[in-house]
Amino acid sequence: MKLLVNTFVLIAFLAVKMVSAQSQSITVEVVNATSDTGTVNFALYDKEGFLMKPLQSKSSKISQGKSLVVFENVLPGEYAVVCYHDKNENKKMDFQPNGMPLEDYGASNNVMNFGPPVYMDAKFTVVNKDVSLEIRF
Residues 14-27, buried b or exposed e (16+ Cβ, 10 A)? Predict the structure, then answer.
């Protein structure tokens, strides 16, 4: 009986260890905010929900033009990060009447096109180690 209990405890411990080892963190830092006013809002997406439904979202204050967040418990896969400088802290990106953004924005891989970020340009892969990204507006 004692052997059975010890075996069960060992299996449970290994299962928890394997599950926790499979999730990673993604550290994202904006390095060139034009001011320390407001916040930078970050969103982590997969391909299916890109620009529509983030898997995780975070907000961070700005200090000396830099803002940093960490997305935790990220499973291996393909992702993209999009962020914007919410200068007036209204929790949304502001646009001019012609559709041009009033606030700075960026995406993982720092590919900037006219128009919104594109998933294929911003995607990166999480495998078996933590990921660090630097985004420039």
Answer: eeeeeeeeeebebe
Q: In terms of DSSP bridges, do strands 124-126 and 77-86 run parallel, antiparallel, or are they unpaired?
A: antiparallel
CB 71 within 8 A of CB 28: yes
- Categorise residue 38: left if φ over 0, alpha if ψ from -120 to 50, beta otherwise: left
In 3D space, the residue among 59, 128, 120, 125 whose CA is nearest the CA of residue 89 turns out to be 59
Q: pLDDT tens digits, residue range 19-51?
A: 445 799 999 999 999 999 999 999 999 999 999
Q: Is the pTM of this model over 0.85?
A: no
94: Cβ contacts below 8 Å, ≥ 6 apart: 88, 101, 102, 103
Q: How far apart are CA 83 and CA 124, in angstroms?
A: 15
Alpha-carbon distance 69 to 130, whole Å?
13
What is the C-alpha separation between 11 and 119, in angstroms, rounded? 40
Per the CB < 8 A criterion, the answer to whether 99 and 34 are in contact is: no
